[in-house]
Amino acid sequence: MDDRLAAAWARLPEYLSQHIALSATALALGLIISLPLAVMAHRNRLVRWPVMTLASLIQTIPSLALLALFYPILLALSAAAEPLGVTFSALGFLPSLLALTLYSILPILRNTMVGLASVDADVREAALGVGMTDRQILTRIELPLAAPVIMAGIRTAAVWVIGTATLSTPVGQTSLGNYIFTGLQTENWVFVLFGCVSAASLALTVDQLLGLIEGGVARREQRRIIAGASGLALIALAAFSPSFFPTRATSYSIGAKGFTEQYVLAYLIRDALENNELVGRRRAGLGSSVVFRALAANEIDAYVDYSGTIWSIQMRRNDQPGREAVLQQMTDWLREQHGVLVLGPLGFENAYALAMRRDRAQSLGIRTISDLARAAPRLTIGGDLEFFGRPEWNALDGAYGLSFGGRREYQSTFMYRSVTDGAVDVISAFSSDGRIAANDLVLLEDDRQAIPPYDAVLLISPARAHDEAFVRALRPLVRAIPVEAMREASLMVDRDDDKRSVREAAAFLAHEIGLE
What we know:
alpha/beta; D-Maltodextrin-Binding Protein, domain 2; five-stranded mixed sheet; elongated
């Protein structure tokens, strides 16, 4: 069996069980909310319009945006509730559950209202005539007659929820989406396909089982209802597999952003912990805006960030006092403002930079960003999904007056392909990325020093800052990783001709720095 396929199968129990648990809980909450609202809206026109409008409005919000929005809201609520002795995790399951619950409401709500409205008025009049109360009419007449239509709405909601649950990875919830996000970043198309097929298979299976129940309800056939319910019960049991529950041993949570270098470093940190008989659990693919807040709130225990990101995004600084001054001021600010420990720089820099194909840069006579600025109106720039919204871009634009003829945004894997294929002329590259040399790209000199230094630094959460065993296990990583080793490790994952897994790249890096 192909190594990548074997790795995908090995992760299936954990990813599938958590995906099922999340989807089933969200769908159940959606039912609990939607059915009473539908009954109220059916009987009261004043309720109908605002309820349907709100449910429809929620459906127009992009799925990933809704998932991300719940994290800062829950983080604020968690901080407010802490003095009352109430604590909960704002990362992972809860924001994902709330967002998916909201997404499940509209199809159930709408179909329930349609089903209730389709009940013949003469049937209701007859029920009133024999002395039934409104509650008896609802439970014994209207809901049973509307049940097939309601089940159709539940089927639609189930498929939506299972599909959308794959987007919960960036907010820290393990799901089948882990295959897709990891695979897209590392160009592991086996993972991408495996994740898509797994999610689609789960959605289709649940849809067919709910269809059995729907058919049984419509035809009054208990056999169909029992068969569908039994199948759903078996699927639900998968959510209670041992992989869903955390290990009893103390487990340290390692965060990682959604690009190759971060995946490799997360494995390296885990290996460093295991060398000291500690248990590390990766939470990879977190959004950049999520991961720092998660660390400060003790939702994760450690991750690697970059001095320039903390300096410009978190500290909102745009001055340039120099590398050592940035590191020292950043260290002091993180400790004083958030209780975060900067264990130290890892030894390499991963700075934002502008890169071009070597032959293209030479033909245009471009060596520096000042040279680029003069040719920019005739060129197209490509950036990663967050670059043009970051302070670094504003600093570059302010320092050089960059005015490109076109601008495009890409997931980082496709961004590098876009410049090698000639779709764009220049991209926002990362200085420690092995794909720069592999694709024969050249980094343009930042001759006006608009971009701050970007030393990779290992950050420890406030709760773990005084955990001596944890800190001691990670100290060997400080100032131990040369940029050449980091480039080669990331390139192992991104290389087309001899692609390796993230785990193998981390093992290579561990060997290079003597961590084995």
